[in-house]
Description:
The protein is mainly α.
Amino acid sequence: MVGLSGTAKKLQTLATTAEKLFERLNALRERVEEMNERMNDTHDRVAALEHEIEEQRALVEALAVEQGIDVEAVLAEAAIDEAEGDAKGVETKGDTNADAGAEGDGEA
């Protein structure tokens, strides 16, 4: 009879563990569903913002053309400035002691 009570206890432990696992799985499923809904909402908002930006860009370009501004030249210059800024950012992320060393050489 001792064997049966030990088996019953093991089965009860197994059932309790299974219930806890099932609860955790359901909680995880709910979190995934909520995250999916938020992702879809975010996607919709991003699409709306992109559309709004396109409309604003068209208006700004029309105003620029009306004022005699070469839109393509302005965009090209902005792209160049951005690329140069990115290149400077990469250079300054390098060895910071190089600047200090250059200054020290000038003082010696």
